[in-house]
Amino acid sequence: MENLALIDSFSEFKDDKLIDRVTLMAILEDVFRNALKKKYGSDDNFDIIINPDKGDLEIWRNRVVVADGEVEDPNEEISLSAARKIEPDFEIGEDVSEEVKLIDLGRRSILALRQNLISKIHEHDNTNIYKQFKELEGEIYTAEVHHIRHRAVILLDDDGNELILPKEKQIPSDFFRKGDNVRGIIESVELKGNKPTIIMSRAAPVFLEKLFEQEIPEVFDGLITVKKVVRIPGEKAKVAVDSYDDRIDPVGACVGMKGSRIHGIVRELGNENIDVINYTSNLPLFITRALSPAKVTSIKLNEETKRAEVILRPEEVSKAIGRGGHNIRLAGQLTGYEIDVLREGAEEDVELSEFSDEIESWIIQEFHKIGLDTAKSVLEYDLKDLVSRTDLEEETIQEVINILREEFEE
């Protein structure tokens, strides 16, 4: 292979990787200088001339003419007789420039040079991809399902970039086929062995926040602010919204007439139940709203422990807790307060924590997860209902019920 049109011979990389011509020239020069160092020990006395217009490359070696028999460094010096074979009128002390052809480097060096060039271009390309997607972290992105693994879905975008959607970052109801278009947020981008690893998520709260920006014009325009989003992916979410314009109803604008605006978001999230709540800096009011659809009778806050004691009528308790304890758990995450639900007229009730000598703490914690913090709140449910609501065995729950009943029978 001659130097002439060498750059064009590597045009496949330029076209495939969308590498600009100037960068390709710089990579070419760097690769050739490394090859010259290996061949001659140094590249200091070499000129590499790249002509992007013609698409060719020239390598010239510069040496000083010395008397015959006095050459000490063949790379830096050339004997007078050898110099006069190039030009008959050379004299001692003059500089000689001689073009180096690719064939002079040797076949093995040429092969190594090509591999090095490919590696450098891939490295440059991977760095560019990393920078591109790093700037997209937290933004919505769409890619196509390429193949499905046991623990992840591999996606490709229009430029052939690979994205990974791990199982734990999917919504539980997600079901994909090869060729499906998938939306999610770019959650993280890392360089692993010079190759970018791009992780997509559909389960992150920010995905729901960005869907609000995409689907609701007032959010996109900044007239409505999404203050906080909490989710149990595929099950339930709570979104606190606010507006600095008193003329705008932020909840109404987000939901739309008969839910028309939020319907597309709900469908995208596998029919996830989304509560949109008016944000307020008034904490008791915010916690009350967060427990919707339950109606709170009264509320007592302990700002030091970040706990809220909420009193409700008995028929409102199940609404506050929600299926699987989802409603009360999300309300706590949204407001930043641990919420204890108490029933009206339950003054004689006893906290479950008071039974820690007889009931193991992890069992008490399981009841806490579904909003049952007192003895009477547990006893109001029958055995089968408690088995379905918790991860506890029937025998374990029956033992707890027996212990609690003894407290009130004494």
Name the shape in a single word. Answer: elongated
Mean pLDDT, all residues? 85
Q: Which secondary-structure class do the elements indicate?
A: alpha+beta
Number of helices: 17
Give the CATH topology of the domain at 6-131. Answer: N Utilization Substance Protein A, Chain:P, domain 4
**Helicity range of the residues?**
25-40%
Strand order of the largest sheet: 7-6-5-8-9
> What share of residues are in beta strands?
25-35%
CATH class of the domain at 6-131: Alpha Beta
What is the makeup of the main sheet? Answer: 5 strands, antiparallel
Work out the radius of gyration: 36 Å
End-to-end C-alpha gap: 100 Å
* Low-pLDDT segments, ≥5 res: 1-9
Strand element count: 15
Known CATH architecture of the domain at 6-131: 2-Layer Sandwich
Short description, anyone?
One of its GO terms (molecular function) is DNA-binding transcription factor activity. It is found in: Cytoplasm. The protein is of the alpha+beta class.
Q: What are its keywords?
A:
410 residues, alpha+beta, N Utilization Substance Protein A, Chain:P, domain 4, OB fold (Dihydrolipoamide Acetyltransferase, E2P), GMP Synthetase, Chain A, domain 3, 17 helices, 39% helix, disordered N terminus
Could you explain how this protein is built, in words?
With 410 residues, the chain is of the alpha+beta class. Among the domains are: 6-131, N Utilization Substance Protein A, Chain:P, domain 4, CATH 3.30.1480; 136-201, OB fold (Dihydrolipoamide Acetyltransferase, E2P) (Beta Barrel); 204-279, 2-Layer Sandwich (GMP Synthetase, Chain A, domain 3). 39% of the residues lie in helices and 26% in strands. It is built from 17 helices and 15 strands. The chain has helices at 6-9, 11-17, 21-40, 80-86, 102-105, 107-134, 205-215, 217-220, 250-255, 263-268, 283-290, 314-321, 326-335, 361-369, 375-379, 383-389, 394-409; strands at residues 46-51, 56-66, 77-79, 95-99, 140-148, 152-156, 162-166, 181-192, 195-201, 224-232, 236-243, 273-278, 296-302, 307-312, 338-343. The strands form four sheets. It has a five-stranded antiparallel beta sheet with strand order 7-6-5-8-9. Strands 1, 2, 3 and 4 form a four-stranded mixed beta sheet that branches. The chain has a three-stranded mixed beta sheet with strand order 10-11-12, sandwiched between helices. A hairpin with a 3-residue loop joins strand 10 and strand 11 (236-243). The longest helix has 28 residues, at 107-134. The radius of gyration is 36 Å and the shape is elongated. The termini are far apart. Residues 1-9 have low confidence and may be disordered.
